[in-house]
Amino acid sequence: MSVEGEDVTTLRSGIPGAERLFLQPGSSGPRQWGRDMEYAPVGTGAWYGTADDYELEHVDWTGRVTRVARWAGPDLEVTGDQVDRYRDAWLRTYDDPESRRRFERDTWPDWRDDLPERMPAYEALLALPDGALWVKTFRWHAPGEELHLLDANGVWLRRLTFPRGAAVLDIGPDWVLLSQRNELDIPTVALYELVETGG
Question: By C-alpha distance, which of 80, 73, 83, 107 is closest to 32?
């Protein structure tokens, strides 16, 4: 295959894409807690995974799987507590009791039926120049932002956590750019050095 005179090589095919809900004929939307294919190109090829589990594959530029990365993480089964938290978050968006009752009676049963039984393991891959990789844990598994660092061979090195309200905008091997809100709820952006701590 070629595009405007450039050769294009298909490294992998048949990988499922984003989980979607078909709402009505001709319309669809992303599924709540739905999995998506994540990938990150590096100098030797690309890391990719479908977030079905805590696993990634590395393919070289010929499409050959050369490495598999595996690490431990929280159970992926959706719990009743997570479902309740999701429902309660929606209930808080309604101003009056009647609107909340209508949501619980008319809307919530269908929404509940559309929730998956398992959540994704991760939601983003952030490649570093040396081929190492930060893997961002799916946000519902951790109380705040959580990332795992894998080296260029897919070996797990460390976990990095941030409190709720912090969002990783960009990250390197020894620095992170965070978006946060201060005590007056004003958004701020700050660059921090990453330092090893004991424990």
Answer: 83
Q: How far apart are CA 199 and CA 139, in angstroms?
A: 24
Which tokens is 57 given?
A: 């594959």
Structural domain spans, the chain: 2-78+116-193
Closest C-alpha to 154, from 141, 170, 139, 135: 135
- Give 165's pLDDT tier (boundaries 50, 70, 90): confident
What's the predicted TM-score (pTM) here? 0.80
